[in-house]
């Protein structure tokens, strides 16, 4: 552990090592399912943007507010709630947040006003930190040489939740309406809260600092750990470009020249599951190779995906290529960067994760807000050009371990 990282907090409460408790296959599976369920809640709105906006009286340009506030909520939760994972038993945090998120989803499904729906999106997003607390929690329970593999496995759950959830939302939303989608999600989330209450073992290596000290230490980490600063910035670009794709595609495919409905968009989006299936392999690559190799390869794929959309603006070749390449690229950069950060200091892993993920979702929120506005006022080609420039910037800024 380097000195700046070691100085970020006090001595752990107990002497439990990361590998002392262990992580069985069935517990890892349940953690992965919970990640998928929780993260899917944050993406159900994307294929249903026009349907929700029409029902609640929002303009097309402002339809991006729902995913924007969800991402902003996650970013706020990362900054103000996730650091508690170094101090409070993670099972308690996970169960509490899942119950609150279920309530927010239920409220969103029943509201008749845009403001209440958007408030629910913000609240559900804040509770969405469960998805990003659990991988850090899981890596506390395994030896160092398994961190990348475990991170990659859970990234599969996260990406499957995003991709399958988004597809199911489009298909089910077309059949039974967006309200039924959100209501069903609330019920499933509540079930997973009850499951995780029984399945999660205690959290090793908790610390004793006051909450205020935990927040202050975030600034210390940002100041003293260059890898953390660079990783947060780079993943903000990667995840922002991932969100730009899906917010933009949801709007573009429902207009000329595609004219698809939400069911057809959901079916088309299933091709993006390849990004989730590639995550375990990307995790093993992160264990074996330098971070710069993995991250640059990821941004190269993101760049190629957006270039395909620019070159084939009116064809499915561009859309499908972008879904696959950008999905794999965004997953690959995240797995590599998280694996590197989790190796810095196990007992302050949640705070490292907090700063990193705040940057990630700040980028996601910004790009979710920008994309519909650029699309409406400047066209799809401008969206693609801006994305390619941002992706090349990610290549330039890629950190080294």
Word description of this protein:
The chain is mainly alpha-helical and 401 residues long. The protein is 76% helix and 0% strand. Helix 2 runs antiparallel to helix 7. Residues 6-20 have low confidence and may be disordered.
Keywords, please?
mainly alpha; 401 residues
Secondary structure layout plus pairing:
Elements: H1 3-6, H2 25-41, H3 49-56, H4 65-80, H5 90-110, H6 114-127, H7 130-140, H8 147-176, H9 178-199, H10 211-224, H11 226-252, H12 262-269, H13 273-277, H14 279-288, H15 291-311, H16 316-342, H17 349-378, H18 380-397
Taken from the alpha-carbon principal axes, the silhouette is globular
- Helix run count: 18
Please give the number of β-strands: 0
Overall pLDDT metric = 87
Beta-strand content:
under 5%
Structural class: mainly alpha
Report the order of strands and helices: HHHHHHHHHHHHHHHHHH
- The first-to-last residue Cα distance is 13 Å
Cα-atom radius of gyration: 20 Å
Helicity, in percent? over 70%
**Main sheet summary:** none
- Give the quaternary arrangement of the chains: single chain
Low-confidence stretches: 6-20
């Amino acid at each position: 552990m380097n000195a700046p990282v070691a100085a970020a907090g006090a001595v752990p409460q107990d002497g439990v090592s990361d590998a002392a408790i262990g992580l069985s296959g069935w517990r890892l599976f349940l953690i992965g399912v919970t990640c998928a369920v929780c993260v899917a809640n944050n993406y159900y709105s994307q294929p249903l943007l026009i349907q929700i906006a029409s029902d609640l009286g929002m303009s097309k340009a402002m339809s991006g507010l729902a995913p924007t506030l969800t991402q902003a909520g996650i970013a706020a939760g990362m900054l103000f709630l996730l650091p508690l994972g170094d101090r409070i038993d993670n099972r308690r945090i996970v169960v509490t947040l899942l119950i609150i998120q279920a309530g927010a989803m239920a409220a969103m499904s029943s509201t008749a006003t845009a403001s209440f729906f958007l408030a629910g999106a913000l609240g559900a997003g804040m509770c969405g930190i469960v998805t990003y607390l659990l991988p850090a929690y899981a890596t506390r329970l395994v030896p160092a040489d398994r961190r990348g593999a475990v991170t990659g496995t859970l990234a599969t759950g996260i990406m499957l939740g995003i991709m399958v959830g988004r597809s199911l939302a489009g298909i089910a939303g077309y059949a039974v309406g967006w309200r039924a989608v959100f209501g069903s999600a609330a019920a499933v989330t509540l079930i997973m809260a009850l499951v995780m209450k029984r399945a999660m073992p205690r959290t090793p290596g908790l610390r004793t600092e006051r909450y205020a000290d935990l927040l202050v230490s975030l600034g210390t980490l940002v100041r003293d750990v260059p890898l953390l600063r660079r990783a947060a910035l780079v993943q903000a670009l990667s995840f922002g470009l991932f969100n730009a794709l899906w917010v933009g595609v949801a709007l573009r495919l429902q207009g000329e020249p595609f004219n698809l409905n939400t069911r057809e968009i959901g079916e088309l989006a299933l091709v993006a599951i390849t990004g989730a299936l590639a995550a375990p392999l990307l995790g093993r690559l992160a264990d074996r190779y330098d971070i710069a190799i993995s991250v640059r390869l990821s941004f190269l794929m993101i760049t190629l995906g957006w270039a395909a959309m620019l070159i084939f603006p009116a064809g499915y070749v561009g859309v499908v290529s972008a879904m696959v390449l950008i999905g794999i690229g965004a997953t690959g950069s995240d797995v590599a960067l998280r694996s590197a950060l989790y190796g810095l200091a196990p007992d302050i892993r949640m705070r490292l994760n907090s700063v990193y993920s705040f940057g990630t979702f700040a980028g996601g929120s910004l790009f979710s807000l920008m994309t519909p506005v650029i699309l409406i006022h400047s066209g799809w080609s401008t969206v693609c050009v801006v994305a390619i420039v941002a992706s090349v910037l990610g290549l330039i800024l890629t950190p080294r371990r």
